[in-house]
UniProtKB/TrEMBL annotation:
Localization in the cell: Cytoplasm; Nucleus
Cellular component terms (Gene Ontology): cytoplasm; high-density lipoprotein particle; nucleus
Ranges that cross the membrane: none
Occurrences of domain K Homology (ranges): 152-220, 224-292, 297-365, 366-432, 437-505, 509-578, 583-651, 655-724, 729-798, 802-871, 875-971, 972-1038, 1050-1119, 1123-1192
Location of the region described as Disordered in the Swiss-Prot/TrEMBL record: 917-937, 1225-1268
SMART domains in the cross-refs: KH (SM00322)
GO terms for biological process, alphabetical: cellular response to estrogen stimulus; cholesterol metabolic process; lipid transport
InterPro entries tied to this protein: KH_dom, KH_dom_type_1, KH_dom_type_1_sf, KH_Vigilin_N
Protein name: Vigilin
PROSITE patterns, per database record: KH_TYPE_1 (PS50084)
Gene encoding the protein: HDLBP
Keywords in alphabetical order: Acetylation, Cholesterol metabolism, Coiled coil, Cytoplasm, HDL, Lipid metabolism, Lipid transport, Nucleus, Phosphoprotein, Repeat, RNA-binding, Steroid metabolism, Sterol metabolism, Transport
Task of the protein: Appears to play a role in cell sterol metabolism. It may function to protect cells from over-accumulation of cholesterol.
């Protein structure tokens, strides 16, 4: 038994506090020690009291002396078990994801389910060791889960008699559950109605063996045949089983018995034999004979084999042990994996033991373990990206296992000796190469600046990595570490370190400002796909702009960066917000629904033009929305301009009148009514006019009415009458009636309700489709008028509630008209006349009786309407309209819209003929002379073709009108003369120009093929549309001819000669100077290419006048450049960086202020202090004076800093003076008795082995000799 003592921080502090204060310093190391008398270090036994020794049972019980006696024994309810999963049985074998991924998730899930605690470790053979701690029940459950979810599952079957199955299941399944838990397997027993006697076991190989053994034991106990249990020492079981179980199988076959030998993992000596009594006795006798024989003849030897080599002796699935047993007849006993013993016992005949021992050592030494020293930070470079470097080695040497440990400067190699040596040579070469060309540096940066160093989407850090070819590790937020590590090429590491420190220093000097911006503007400022905020960020690159998450509903936008830049950015954004506020003004314009499409225009031309010219946002309601309101958003002035333009379009399209009525503001709310019901009823009654009341609180008395002239006058009268009534006395009453009665109460065209209002003077308001209460009818007016109207309506409603049944005669020939289209005509009658039910006789009967059921008045009205329809049907005629079939599709319009409109307008039915089929292939078409198949038939040209005749049915006068309307839709074709050279411009890019004209004028335009070179363009369409298209086409021709003339004028070219050395100055920084000249003079300026012969030629193209102006501007710049001078000055190189400033900001400011160009020497220049200033003489002198003044100012700081450094001691020097700490010291420790007197190495895996990692022990241990 061995023990390990752990010294915690608390115990260390306690020991130190026990030392008295009198300390003296010896040597330069500064290590304190105590006086010989009282201040000596404590002894090892005082610091770590030993555990009590075992006391023999025969000895008298004596009181143990020592610190451990004071501890009272406590029986723990927590147990710990260790399970080992070999590599070949691991379900998850991804070595790169150990400790993460699916395996880790499963372990967490098992811990949550069972309440047990799991610890995983990876052995050198890549096997998985799992330590499970917890209560017994929790540990067993966790073990079962581990086996099921982390270990690959095998399966096996065991056959026992069907009647024994119930004994395996046990009472309420308890025995089966216990068995599954104990063996960590899944046992499936066939259902009672299944005739199979096979029990299926799923789990690990070891678990299956245990479960099979237990099931066979249960079966044997219940078996009616004889059962005998023979106790044979566990060590002799391999001899009875024989190599690969051959011997026991032979005995079972010869005796027809079943012999169950417990597997090696089950610590039982009992062998169970079942079978017929005589055969059973024979089998038992043979087993005992083998046992007695082996017990007499065999002897044992014990040898020490390193624990790490045991697995090589065992071999895959125990094959090596079976192989040794088969060859030599010697059994090899290996200690269990959780045992610390290294002793291997060989049992067999003396003359065979030598051969077996040789084979054991050969197997054990077939593999070796070696190590390569390599700094831990280089490990990932050795492994390579996605393991590329290692995979090259492992592919050549697949048997060698290479293990890297994080934070340890060592790489462990394990495998066949020769291959390990070769791999070791390769890795050492890689390490030497990497050490020679790689370096690392660590810098300290406050974690709050880490995300700014990384940049958005890693932009900053990726740029540094790419630029300096280094790897930069910034710790994640959860580590809360301020250490940043840079690895790579030594020069790149230093440059990256310098830049990161500069960035961090700049961030420390930054400031943060919060702007309050309404959240509704955030999306607008950010723009679509972040385009607008990108522009702001490009304008202020040093400022970081953070918008709050939309979910937070916050209005605070945070700016961070240099103080001046943040202020500028804040002012810019505040101005932007102010513009947005002024642009968010909104007004609603009521426009009649039928004119919305005209306001939009063909392809949205009109609305797009208004939006662009007024710079407003205009939203129109959807087609299926009944709203007439068009919403305009933008600046107030622009919104008013857009509103006027939209109203102007409406006025042009219809006879729209607009009047203003003066009504006291205090009456406005009562005239509008609850939810606008009252004013809406007036608008609907007066043909849908628009009545606009001023905004509440404006104090205005003006009410605007807009619409057709007659309807406006009518609405005006009603509004004024209602206002007068409201002023005198307003009275309101509410009635209720079924919604289906409303249409009948209103009457056709509002006739019934108008009659009631004319009689009483009261206004009656019916609910709209949006109102929740569909039965509520409101009567408004004077008290007398309202009461009188109420009486009349109540009488009407009462009559409607009086349901009667009546009948009428309708000729069967007209029945089809009423019931056609799923009874659409009858549905319309029912909707209009209070839900009257009309029943026609069944098809096939010759009855003419039609039944009507409903309110008496409704039935009468419905009968009257049906008689009117029958009268129309009796008076119906059919006429023919002859129009060539080629025009039929055009007449019908898109989806038959045009012909549907004619049908609706004139209440007629229109039937188009079937299309004439083309002559079949191989048949001769009829010639114009009428000759076909040798026969001559005369064709009368005056007789129309059947395919050209359109049938119109309805009243005679309506049919004639419909015929005229159809004929008006026949398209006509005209030809317009257009010069051939303009055709391609009229067609436009990919036909866009001609398509736009065809959409705008609703015509078809045909341009002749280019090879014909004709000056004619054909236009086909309705007569009115064709005329408009002709005018539009001629206007376009005029525009194109004007453009041609303009292009000729713009193509004037001018060439000037300018010395190439001045070209960069004329172009300017990022092309700023030349771009300004181009924009000011509206010209194109072309500089010579590198390969051109005339390098001094600059070509200017544009209008002649503009080209001359641009030439003068360029020559003026050349003149100034020729007057410029260059002067070199001496400026101390130590202040160059400060003059240049961050990102050249300082030097740019100086160059802009003095209008000069300043050039600093490059690194490695002969004279690092030489600075060149170029410009006009007076500007150069002023700039030089300014630079010299800056030098004087900055040099004083440089001198002061250098003087301070002289008094500061280097950090490295301070650290060198400190001696190494001796740590905690004890006397009379176990290692003091050894030859080296060396204390255990805390970093050594041999002195302090980690859990689950087998190590090679030293021959001598610093802890002293082992006790067994």
């Amino acid at each position: 038994m061995s023990s390990v003592a752990v010294l915690t921080q608390e115990s260390f502090a306690e020991h130190r506090s026990g030392l008295i204060q009198g300390q003296v310093t010896v040597g330069g190391g500064g290590f304190p020690y105590c006086s010989e008398e009282e201040n000596d270090p404590p002894t090892y036994k005082d610091a770590f009291p030993p555990l009590p020794e075992k006391v023999a049972a025969s000895d008298a019980v004596q009181e143990q002396v020592g610190a451990w006696n004071k501890i009272r024994p406590i029986k723990s309810s927590i147990i710990t078990q260790v399970f080992h999963v070999p590599l070949e049985e691991r379900k998850y074998k991804d070595m790169n994801q150990f400790g993460e991924g699916e395996q880790a998730k499963i372990c967490l899930d098992i811990m949550q389910k069972t309440g047990a605690h799991l610890e995983l470790s990876l052995a050198k053979d890549q096997g998985l060791s799992i330590m499970v701690s917890g209560k017994l029940e929790a540990v067993m459950k966790a073990r079962k889960e581990i086996v099921a979810r982390l270990q690959t599952q095998a399966s096996a079957t065991v056959a026992i008699p069907k009647e024994h199955h119930k004994f395996v299941i046990g009472k309420n399944g308890e025995k089966l559950q216990e068995l599954e838990l104990k063996t960590a397997t899944k046992i499936q027993i066939p259902r009672p109605d299944d005739t199979s006697n096979q029990i299926k076991i799923t789990g690990t190989k070891e678990g299956i063996e245990k479960a099979r053994h237990e099931i066979l034991l249960i079966s044997a106990e219940q078996d009616k045949r004889a059962v005998e249990r023979v106790n044979i020492e566990k060590a002799f079981h391999p001899f009875i089983a024989g190599a690969y179980n051959k011997l026991v199988s032979e005995i079972m076959q010869e005796t027809s018995t079943r012999i169950n030998i417990p597997p090696p993992s089950v610590n039982k000596t009992e062998i169970v034999i079942t079978g017929e009594k005589e055969q059973l006795a024979t089998a038992v006798a043979r087993l005992k004979k083998i046992y007695e024989e082996k017990k007499k003849k065999t002897t044992t030897i014990a040898v020490e084999v390193k624990k790490s080599q045991h697995k090589y002796v065992i071999g895959p699935k125990g094959n090596s042990l079976q192989e040794i047993l088969e060859r030599t007849g010697v059994s090899v006993e290996i200690p269990l994996p959780d045992s610390s013993s290294e002793t291997v016992i060989l049992r067999g005949e003396p003359d065979k033991l030598g051969q077996a021992l040789t084979e054991v050592y050969a197997k054990a030494n077939s593999f070796t373990v070696s190590s390569v020293t390599a700094p831990s930070w280089l490990h990932r470079f050795i492994i390579g990206k996605k393991g590329q470097n290692l995979s090259k080695i492992t592919q050549q040497m697949p048997k060698v296992h290479i293990e890297f440990t994080e934070g340890v400067d060592k790489i462990i190699l394990e495998g066949p000796t020769e291959e390990v040596q070769e791999v070791q040579t390769q890795i050492e070469a890689m390490v030497t190469d990497l050490v020679s060309r790689m370096d690392y540096a660590e810098i300290t940066v406050d974690p709050k600046f880490h995300r700014h160093l990384i940049g958005k989407g890693g932009a900053n850090i990726n740029r540094i990595k790419e630029q300096y070819k280094v790897s930069v590790r910034i710790p994640p937020d959860n580590e809360k570490s301020n250490l940043i590590r840079i690895e790579g090429d030594p020069q790149g590491v230093q440059q990256a370190k310098k830049e990161l420190l500069e960035l961090a220093s700049r961030m420390e000097n930054e400031r943060t400002k919060d702007l309050i911006i309404e959240q509704r503007f955030h999306r607008t400022i950010i723009g679509q796909k972040g385009e607008k905020i990108k522009e702001i960020r490009d304008k202020f690159p040093e400022v970081i702009i953070n918008f709050p998450d939309p979910v937070q509903k916050s209005e605070i936008v945070q700016l961070r960066g240099p103080k001046n830049e943040v202020e500028k950015c804040a002012k810019f954004m505040q101005k932007m917000v102010a513009d947005l506020v002024s642009s968010s003004y909104s007004i609603s314009v009521p426009i009649f629904k039928q004119f919305h499409k005209n306001i939009i225009g063909k392809g949205g031309v009109n609305i797009k033009k208004i939006r662009e010219e007024t710079n407003t946002k205009i939203d129109l309601p959807a087609e299926n929305n009944n709203s007439e309101m068009i919403i305009i958003t933008g600046k107030k002035v622009n919104c008013d301009a857009a509103r006027n333009r939209i109203l102007a379009i409406q006025k042009e399209l219809a006879n729209i009148s607009e009047v203003e009525v003066c009504i006291p503001a205090k009456l406005h709310n009562s005239l509008i009514g609850s939810k606008g019901r009252l004013v809406r009823s007036i608008m609907e009654e007066c043909g849908g006019v628009h009545i606009h009341f001023p905004m509440e609180g404006s104090g205005s008395d003006t009410v605007t009415i807009r619409g057709p002239v007659e309807d406006v006058e009518k609405a005006k009268r009603q509004l004024l009458q209602l206002a007068e009534e409201k002023q005198i006395k307003s009275f309101t009453v509410e009635l209720r009636a079924k919604p289906e009665y409303h249409k009948f109460l209103i009457g056709k065209g509002g006739g019934n309700i108008r009659k009631v209002r004319d009689n009483t003077g009261a206004r009656i308001i019916f609910p709209t489709a949006e109102d929740k209460d569909q039965e509520l009818i409101t009567i408004v007016g004077t008290e007398d008028a309202v009461k009188e109207a109420q009486k009349e309506l109540e009488v009407l409603i009462k009559n409607l509630d009086n349901v009667v049944e009546d009948s009428m005669a309708v000729d069967p020939k007209h029945h089809r008209y009423f019931v056609a289209r799923r009874g659409q005509v009858l549905r319309d009658i029912a909707e209009e006349y209070g839900g009257v039910m009309v029943s026609f006789p069944r098809t096939g009967t010759q009855s003419d009786k039609v039944t009507l059921k409903g309110a008496k008045d409704c039935v009468e009205a419905a009968k009257k309407r049906m008689l009117e329809i029958i009268e129309d049907l009796e008076a119906q005629v059919t006429i023919e309209c002859v129009i060539s079939q080629k025009f039929h599709r055009s007449i019908m319009g898109p989806k038959g819209s045009r012909v549907q409109q004619i049908t609706k307008d004139f209440n007629v039915q229109i039937k188009f003929p079937d299309r004439e089929e083309a002559p079949a292939a191989g048949t001769e078409p009829i010639q114009e002379t009428g000759e076909a198949n040798g026969e001559v038939k005369e064709v009368d040209p005056t007789i129309p073709k059947k395919c050209d005749i359109i049938i119109i049915s309805g009243r005679k006068e309506k049919c004639e009108a419909a015929k005229e309307a159809l004929e008006a839709l026949v398209p006509v074709t005209i030809e317009v003369e257009v010069p051939f050279d303009l055709h391609r411009y009229i067609i436009g890019q990919k036909g866009s120009g001609i398509r736009k004209m065809m959409d705008e004028f609703e015509v078809n335009i045909q341009v002749p093929a280019p090879e014909l070179q004709l000056d004619i363009i054909s236009i086909t369409g309705l007569a009115s549309h064709v005329d408009r298209a002709r005018v539009g086409l001629l206007d376009r021709v005029k525009e194109l001819q004007a453009e041609q003339e303009d292009r000729a004028l713009r193509s004037f070219k001018l060439t000037i000669s300018v010395d190439p050395k001045y070209h960069p100055k004329i172009i300017g920084r990022k092309g700023a100077v030349i771009t300004q000249i181009r924009m000011e003079h509206d010209v194109n300026i072309q500089f010579p290419d590198k390969n051109d012969e005339n390098q001094d030629q600059i070509t200017i193209t544009g209008y002649e006048k503009n080209a001359e102006g641009a030439r003068n501007a360029i020559m003026k710049i050349v003149g100034e450049l020729e007057e410029m001078v260059s002067e070199d000055i001496t400026l101390d190189h130590r202040i160059h960086a400060r003059v240049i400033g961050a990102r050249g900001k300082g030097i740019r400011k100086i160059m802009d202020e003095f209008k000069v160009d300043i050039r600093f020497p490059q690194s490695g220049a002969a004279d690092p202090n030489c600075v060149t200033v170029t410009g006009l003489p007076e500007n150069v002198d002023e700039a030089i004076d300014h630079l010299l003044n800056l030098e004087e100012e900055y040099m004083s700081d440089v001198v002061e800093t250098e003087a301070m450094r002289a008094y500061m001691k280097p950090r490295d020097a301070v650290e060198e003076t400190r001696g190494p700490s001796k740590g905690f010291v004890v006397r009379d420790a176990p290692w003091a008795a050894g030859p080296t007197e060396k204390a255990p190495d805390m970093s050594s895996s041999e002195d302090f082995p980690s859990f689950g990692a087998p190590v090679t022990p030293k021959t001598t241990s610093p802890w002293g000799p082992k006790r067994f």
